[in-house]
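A further point concerns the way the authors explain their paired sequence and structure data. An entry of this sort, consisting of the sequence and the corresponding C-alpha cells, reads as follows:
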Amino acid sequence: MSRKIKLIWDFRGEVAAKTAEHHEIHLKEYIAIEQVPINITGFEVLNEMYAIAFMVVTDENMIQVRDALKPHRGEIYS
C-alpha cells in the first residue's frame, strides 16, 4: 500500500482564507483533468492572517503533482 502525502500551499494576509478556499477549486480541477486517483482536498483557516489549501496524493503521483503545481511543503497524511 502506498503512502499518502499531503501537499500544502500556504497563504498569508487579510485575504488568506478566501485565497485558500479558491485555490482548492483549482486543485479539484487539476484532479479531474489529470485523473489523479485520490480525491482528497481541502482548506483550513489557521488564524485571521494564515490559511492553507491542501491535496493528498500517493507516492507514485507526488513528483508529477509537485512539479506541476509547486506546493510550498508536504507531510505524511494519516
